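Please decode residue identities from the backbone states below.
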């Protein structure tokens, strides 16, 4: 079995970002996101819909983002494509061959 993604499907230039937490001096923390890498990706929508959260209607969409294998990608990271932000839900090494990563993600409603 081979991965369904082809090199030509990698049409989206995305940033992989990592969070850094710094104390705000009041017992909380400030989170800043730092770019780890710019990579080419295929973004495929799986589901979409709406939910009612925090007294408002919020859109939800799940996607699979495919990238070439890259060490160090973790679910604590996120993907940014322009103004779109995707929380990484998992990191799958497709066929355990270190060729492709499949990242199930949840798109944030900004």
């Amino acid at each position: 079995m081979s991965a369904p993604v082809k090199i030509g499907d990698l049409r989206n230039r995305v940033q992989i970002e990592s969070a850094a937490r710094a104390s705000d001096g009041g017992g909380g923390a400030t989170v800043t996101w730092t770019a780890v890498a710019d990579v080419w990706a295929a973004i495929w929508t799986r589901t979409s819909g709406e939910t009612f959260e925090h007294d408002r209607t919020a859109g939800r969409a799940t996607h699979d983002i495919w990238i070439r294998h890259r060490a160090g990608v973790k679910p604590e990271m996120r993907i940014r494509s322009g103004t779109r932000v995707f929380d990484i839900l998992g990191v799958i090494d497709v066929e355990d061959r270190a060729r492709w990563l499949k990242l199930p993600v949840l798109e944030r409603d900004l």
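Observation: The chain has one domain: 9-107.
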